[in-house]
Amino acid sequence: MEVFVEQALTYTECLNKIRMKYGDRITIMHYKNIRMGGFLGLFAKDGVEITFFAPNAVLKPGAFQGGPFPQVQNSPGQTDHSRKTSLNFEEEKKKILDANSSKGESIALQQVLKEVKELKQQISATASAGQTEKHSTISRIEEILDINDFSPIFSQTILDRIKKEFSLDGLNDYTAVQDTVLEWIGESITVYKEEKFQRLPRIMVLVGPTGVGKTTTIAKLAAIYGLGNFGRRPISVRMITIDAFRIGARDQIEAYGNIMALPVSYVEDYDDLKKTIAQYSEGTDLFLIDTIGKSPRDSRDLGEMKQLLDACGSQAELYLAVAATTKLSDLKEIIRQFEPFNYRSVIVTKLDETIRVGNVISALSDLGKSVSYITYGQKVPSNIQKATIVRFLINLEGFQVNRAKIEARFPTDEAEQIQWR
Ligand SMILES: Nc1nc2c(ncn2[C@@H]2O[C@H](COP(=O)(O)OP(=O)(O)OP(=O)(O)O)[C@@H](O)[C@H]2O)c(=O)[nH]1
Ligand SMILES: [Mg+2]
After folding, report:
1. pLDDT tens digits, residue range 255-306?
2. Sign of dihedral through CA atoms 22, 25, 29, 32?
3. Which CATH number characterizes residue 331's domain?
4. Measured at the alpha carbon of residue 247, what is the angle toward residues 246 and 250, in degrees to the nearest 5?
5. Which ligand has an atom closest to residue 208 CA?
6. CB 353 less than 6 A from any atom of ligand 1
7. Ligand 1 mean position to 196 CA, how many Å?
């Protein structure tokens, strides 16, 4: 025998509720009026509570759905059996509660799993989008540009162009892409074209930072033009240095002059320089003027030298010498700081000391400068050459250079080469 308690707003409603749950075979023990619901005693309503016996109580299916759970009454008349049945009922209730709570948990779990799945999909979508952007060919080219020390701006332009001009199929052909990239790099190099007919005497001036090889390059040029190296008809050359007082500087150029039996003049200031040029103009085809190495950071010093060099007159050709070993940011600073000299082109020295020329190529290209000569060793006069695009390209690290193809694409100006020889 089981004792149960049920509550409702009216007696009939409560009875209906009991019958719905336990059927008709119930015995009402007693009922009482109660206050139902509310909050802290407020808003409660009048209701009825019925206590009843329900023999062999078996809950009708779905009896608890939406309704309040029956409460167990620990009435003094309860037998062991009724207590046991009540306990069974409690167990049942717990099971249902557990089932409900695990159902809740599983819903929450499913929600979490759904979110994880979505996140996973998002991540793999992003990864695959990245993959299309960073095709292995693009990554390889990026790496090579980086190894060669190209400027970020230069590299980015190349990478953007690859993405724009190559289809996915095209990117799969690495050799074709790198050949094209080499071509683009070649196109970015501007080789200085000398004027065909020079007014004589020609005046070439080398400026640049300290120790880049200005004096050595002056000596190389003097030998080539003055001695008629490589079967060239010699012309009358005079070297002039304005670096006459630095210890060793005078000895250095004097030694070259002596070995080559070419005249050297030493000047101190503007007047001196102007006078010397005027004095030897008659018998000289080419003046090669060596200057004191200047720090690009000392603008006052640079300004003074600029004033001194004004003595050469407007027909003077100024060249900026920079070493290929200079790091990219310094190269750019040098190129900018020497701008007031209005130099015609850049001479790149010490190419033999580095296998990375991306810094030079991109600094020149980024700042719109041309290259005229390159030097690649201490030997006078052999380690100098008129700049060629091919020479820069074959110096690049990591590219498989098809020399024949490159030479066909960037032919050297034969007329200029012959003149040089
Ligand atoms: N490896 C290499 N060394 C060079 C090259 N050109 C010059 N040098 C060396 O670089 C050092 C400096 O050369 P200089 O010609 O005295 O340089 P500079 O620009 O006149 O120097 P300052 O007058 O002191 O400003 C010397 O040891 C040269 O032999 C080159 O193309 N390659
Ligand atoms: Mg010098």
Report:
1. 999 999 999 999 989 999 999 999 999 999 999 999 988 887 777 788 889 9
2. positive
3. 3.40.50.300
4. 75
5. 1
6. yes
7. 29
